[in-house]
Amino acid sequence: MTGGHAAGRHTDRHAGGGRSVLRSPETDQADRTGHDHPFDQWRRRPSDHPRHPLIPSVHASGQSVTQARQVLDGGADIVVAQASEAGGHGGGCLTFPLVPAVADLAARSGRKVLVVAAGGIADGRGLAATLMLGADGALIGTRFLASTESLIAPTAKARVVSASGDDKLRTKVLDIARGYDWSDEYSGRALVNRFSKTWHGREDALIAAGADERRRYAAAAAAGDVDTALVFAGEGVDLIHDIEPAGVILNRIVTEAESALAQQID
């Protein structure tokens, strides 16, 4: 999932000052999208934001150990270890084995590289767990979709809050409906809706439906109709119960993580 809020611990690691930008497939695709579904207005190109002197110019997403090794070899200062539990497009690696493996790779690189965990993290317990796995912080997306400041459609926010863990699937039909040709290895994790129930497993029929179905989908997305338009969301939806200001959510996550890390095991 593109976007999100980062939370983590203070560390004496620091990011370097590279020149190039290493992009994940999801970030590249987001830069090409128009406002054709409830998430699009939430996405921004990096160039839309002023450069801050403390923000590194090299970053990358690794959805497997192999990808993480590639981006480390490419000079990334920050590696986001995005696991399969994340919403949106991703691979098949899970948070608990992926994050420590990437953290070990970063440690062996001989450089001061920050590792950020992503996928299924929605509260302080998840943040504490990722820190114990060796991450320097967490990139949290789905929880902040249900925030006051989030720019997704109100109907999409309500759908995230009402969803349960049984309401998700990985599918290609939402890419087909939007005219995107993703690699077969990257499906999208989204909330089940009427559109996905109709077409999931019938991808060839959706392709055959062509432009007419794509126009119908685009019109529904523009109207905020989440029975048709996609709502990307991760495995953390069971932990989301209301819409709150982002600052309240962030402070609670950090406080919960500090409390969890301070507990002693008898």
Give the SSE map.
Blueprint: E1 5-8, H1 25-32, E2 59-62, H2 65-73, E3 78-82, E4 88-90, H3 95-108, E5 114-118, H4 124-132, E6 137-140, H5 142-145, H6 154-162, E7 168-171, H7 173-177, E8 187-191, H8 194-199, H9 203-222, H10 246-262
Parallel strand pairs: 2-3, 3-5, 5-6
Antiparallel strand pairs: 1-6, 4-8, 7-8
Helix pairs in contact: 2-3, 4-10
Protein architecture, described:
There is one protein chain. This protein is α/β, with parallel strands linked by helices and 266 residues long. It has two domains: 5-148 and 242-262, Aldolase class I (TIM Barrel); 154-222, no CATH class. It has helices spanning 25-32, 65-73, 95-108, 124-132, 142-145, 154-162, 173-177, 194-199, 203-222, 246-262, and strands spanning 5-8, 59-62, 78-82, 88-90, 114-118, 137-140, 168-171, 187-191. The chain is globular.
Describe the structure in brief.
This protein has 266 residues and is α/β, with parallel strands linked by helices. It contains 10 helices and 8 strands.
For the record, what CATH class of the largest domain applies? Alpha Beta
At the fold tier of CATH, the topology name of the largest domain is TIM Barrel
What strand order characterises the main sheet?
1-6-5-3-2
**Strand elements, count:** 8
CATH-level-4 superfamily name of the largest domain: Aldolase class I
Question: What are the secondary-structure elements, in order, as H or E?
Answer: EHEHEEHEHEHHEHEHHH
- Main structural class: alpha/beta
Tell me the number of structural domains: 2
Summarize the biggest pleated sheet: 5 strands, mixed
Share of residues in strands: 5-15%
Shape: globular
